[in-house]
Specification:
Radius of gyration: 19 Å
Number of strands: 6
Strand content: under 5%
Shape: globular
Largest sheet: 2 strands, antiparallel
Order of helices and strands: HHHHHHEHHEHHHHEEEHEH
Strand order of the largest sheet: 1-2
């Protein structure tokens, strides 16, 4: 990797940390636009996980200190978490719980262990579809979104592996297998963004229950969900583990068919030639991470490193820019979903209508995760 690029990325990370506090992280653009303080949320969870990976690869204490102070600020001595309600039953809120395992190991703070149990108590209470999948949120009944697999399953798997004698491995694997069964398109190998098990939502096909498009970041979250869940599982002689690996490899191969010559992917993956469709940073960064880490863990052939590098470098070339002496990462879709207050329909035009922003953690977090994999290559 180019030395100047490395220096610029390290400088960019330092700038983000210097300008952020737990109440007002500069990378949480949604909260900033709403004029609200940050709470316990998946966006900050993505970023702190990436910062902990930066600590793991560089050994630089400033990354550990920042991550510990950020999470410590939210977690009370009894393990309750400021700004987090189990009863909201929102699978997104489980994501930040992943940081607690690492920080507990690094610090030994008992409150982190208690907080892990609190987040796990949400897993135990999550409502489920008839197929056995967690609802995405209590406010989205009977709906499975690809995003939710990433938000919940790696935490669930790590808890089961470390603290619950692997009792619920079958449940975790089954939730992935149901997604393959219900959300994968046989022809392309891609997965639709969401599935309504009840077939009631206005955005779904009344026969299949599926939304109508392949959204890049959702496919990215799902790729990371497969990879990070496998990473936290005990691999010993499990047929389900091997099946999960195959699902991951098949998805990587399907995504590579849509990789642009720039190395990146389009916001709506299979419609690269459509007017207004654009190369998007967060999903492309996730794919870079998934490809590079997939090779490192031995799931993908060594030759796939080149696809991962191409994706990472493509993001840098197109969207990592210097403006008035400061680095910025652009091309990040702020948010996308189905239904809800805005009656989001999941059409191509809908995915094109969501704001494109700079420096949001949904792009920066995956970009830094991909960067740590690039650093591991040496």
């Amino acid at each position: 990797m180019d030395k100047t690029l490395q220096e610029n990325i390290f400088k960019y990370i330092d700038e983000l940390l210097e300008k952020s506090t737990p109440d007002r992280p500069i990378w949480n653009i949604e909260k900033i636009l709403e004029g609200k303080k940050a709470d316990w949320n998946y966006i900050d969870g993505c970023m702190i996980k990436a910062i902990l990976e930066m600590y793991a690869i560089t050994g630089e204490k400033k990354y550990f200190d920042f991550a510990d102070e950020f999470i410590d600020y939210r977690v009370r001595e009894d393990g309750t978490i400021d700004g987090y309600s189990v009863e909201e039953l929102n699978i997104d809120n489980v994501n930040a719980g992943k940081t607690l395992f690492e920080l507990y190991d690094l610090t030994g703070k008992e409150k982190y262990r208690k907080a892990i149990d609190l987040v796990y108590s949400q897993i135990e209470k999550m409502p489920r579809t008839k197929e056995g999948n967690f609802w995405h949120k209590n406010i989205y009944p009977n709906q499975v979104w690809l995003d939710g697999l990433y938000m919940g399953q790696p935490f669930y798997m790590e808890y089961e592996t470390r603290f619950n004698d692997k009792k619920n491995y079958d449940d975790i694997y089954n939730q992935f297998f149901q997604v393959v069964k219900n959300m994968r398109d046989e022809r392309t190998g891609l997965y639709y963004h969401a599935y309504d098990s009840s077939r009631e939502m206005f955005w779904c096909d009344k026969v299949t229950g599926l939304s109508s498009n392949y959204w890049l970041r959702a496919l990215g979250w799902y790729s990371m969900a497969l990879l990070d869940t496998l990473d936290k599982a005990d691999s010993s002689a499990s047929e389900s583990y091997e099946k999960m690996k195959t699902i991951f490899v098949d998805l990587m191969d399907a995504m590579l068919r849509y990789q642009d010559e720039s190395g990146m992917w389009y916001q709506v993956v299979n419609l690269g030639g459509m007017e207004r469709n654009y190369l998007e940073t967060s999903g492309s960064s996730i794919m870079a991470y998934a490809l590079l880490k997939g090779v490192r863990l031995g799931f993908l052939p060594e030759s796939y490193v080149e696809y991962g590098k191409k994706a990472f470098n493509g993001v840098c070339d197109k969207y990592l820019n210097m403006e008035e002496g400061n680095m910025h990462l652009g091309g990040i879709c702020l948010v996308a979903g189905l239904g809800g207050a805005g009656n989001r329909p999941g059409t191509f035009d809908y995915y094109m209508s969501e704001p494109i922003v700079n420096d949001d953690a949904k792009g920066v977090g995956p970009f830094l995760l991909a960067y740590t994999e690039m650093l591991r290559l040496g």
